[in-house]
Amino acid sequence: MPIYNKLVRDRIPEIIESTGKQFSTRILSNEEYIKELKKKSFEELEEYVNTSNNEDAIEELADLLEIIHAIAEYHGSSFEKVEEVRKRKAEKRGGFKEKIFLIEVEDE
């Protein structure tokens, strides 16, 4: 039986159960949960980085957003609050639409 030892979406046990396969799970402590969410964010980002077409990229971005929702909730906030902060930062410092690549800045 393959061992995964990773955070999975809430309905994965139900989906596995519907196949008739045996499996085991456990509920993480809060400390384990945030650690695993952080690991999962890197996993999903790597999957996005390795995509080669728009359709796969959107699928992986959706997974990243799900992780961001969960992390925001863990920190006592919401995705809407994260989006509010993102907008405020974009107004102050801009976004990334202009594709500007900084090469160097003169030392003082």
Total number of strands: 0
Largest sheet: none
Coarse structural class: mainly alpha
Categorize the overall geometry: elongated
Which band does the percent of strand residues land in? under 5%
Protein name: Phosphoribosyl-ATP pyrophosphohydrolase
Organism: Bacillus methanolicus PB1
SSE arrangement:
Layout: H1 12-18, H2 30-49, H3 54-74, H4 79-93
Helix pairs in contact: 2-3
State the main characteristics.
0% strand; MSMEG_1276-like_NTP-PPase_dom; 108 residues; mainly alpha
Description:
The chain has four helices and no strands. It has 108 residues and is an all-alpha fold. The chain has a domain at 12-80. The longest helix has 21 residues, at 54-74. The model has no long low-confidence stretch (mean pLDDT 97). It comes from Bacillus methanolicus PB1. InterPro entries: MSMEG_1276-like_NTP-PPase_dom. This is Phosphoribosyl-ATP pyrophosphohydrolase.
What's a quick, concise take on this entry?
This is Phosphoribosyl-ATP pyrophosphohydrolase. The protein is 58% helix and 0% strand. With 108 residues, it is mainly α.
